[in-house]
Design a protein that fits this description.
With 198 residues, chain A is α/β, with parallel strands linked by helices. Chain A has helices spanning 4-14, 21-33, 36-47, 68-71, 86-95, 123-127, 144-158, 182-190, and strands at 53-54, 61-62, 76-83, 100-104, 135-138, 163-166. In chain A, the strands form 2 sheets. The first copy, chain A, has a 4-stranded parallel β-sheet with strand order 4-3-5-6. A two-stranded antiparallel sheet of chain A has the order 1-2. In chain A, helix 1 crosses helix 2 (21-33). Chains A and B meet through helix 1, helix 2, helix 3, strand 2 and helix 5 of A and helix 1, helix 2, helix 3, strand 2 and helix 5 of B.
Amino acid sequence: MYPKKFEELCSAFEKLPGVGSKTAQRYAFTMLDKDSEQIDMMVDALKGIRQIRRCKVCGFLSDEDYCPFCKDTSRDASTIMVVAYPQDVAAIEKTGSYKGLYHVLGGLISSSKGIYPEDINIEKLLERIEPSLREVIVAVSPTMEGEMTALYLDKILKDKGVLVTRLAHGLPMGASLDYADELTLIKAMDNRRKIQDE
Amino acid sequence: MYPKKFEELCSAFEKLPGVGSKTAQRYAFTMLDKDSEQIDMMVDALKGIRQIRRCKVCGFLSDEDYCPFCKDTSRDASTIMVVAYPQDVAAIEKTGSYKGLYHVLGGLISSSKGIYPEDINIEKLLERIEPSLREVIVAVSPTMEGEMTALYLDKILKDKGVLVTRLAHGLPMGASLDYADELTLIKAMDNRRKIQDE
């Protein structure tokens, strides 16, 4: 019923995550009401994707060969935090309490999805292991895939004599104890700490 | 923290309805993972918007001068259903029980938004009033703006001697009576019909 060009636009939007036919149509109608300038802006933004590169050292997004973190000599180069995705770097940076470097894997090891160690950015991490490196913090989500990746990294990095740590598991701050799931409670009990240490 | 080109892509996606910064970023990351071909597909789809036109008669979307409905001589030309948006045509067509023509206003009269009768596609509707036209069905949503538009159309079309009707208000089919809002119940009582008429 709709013109072919309109249907094509809907299909394009349907490729976005979580966008069904109804939402895609809504987006398409919105674009239809926009003037040429705004459409051009979106077209240019999409074309600009090709200019987004990955940092040659850590794999984070960058306009240039090296990302702002790797270029920043004021950051503590003795610590590398390994994350799965660039978004995770943003989440950690928002806390403002980490001053070391990052390493973005670009994914997690997953036997079910057929993602093996050689498919993610691990080789470049190994190249970064130097005597001056004190600690590698594995900051991956506590999912099956996160666990597999953490264990793999622990094994290969320990062999190289680096201290490998991971983010703590336990009750989220502000959360109600009786709403926590069993696994989280078990982890919180296992990892209990002396009160004066906190 | 993210490259400028990436931020630009996020901003572009944020222009879509109901898309906040988090969703826009999710869309941008998805596009980042797509290959050139898929990005080109989206770019071409957006560029294609300029080729989408409005039917010269009814205002519905079309590749050509006239839309599929206006070109279809098998449809009943004695009835025109007036709707606010092209999406409404799709909703009516899905019922499969309307065989007349359409007229798309492209909006509704709204004093609060400063949309006046001359801002929507009413002039072309008046041009379609011919002696062979039997009925104009005003099929707008029962909102304040819909009501204003319906009353305005009723006034100017009646003067031209056309029968003007509107969609019935009442209980939605399958809905529970005790969940209906008061206004709907009042309308349903006011518009009650003899059982054998149904």
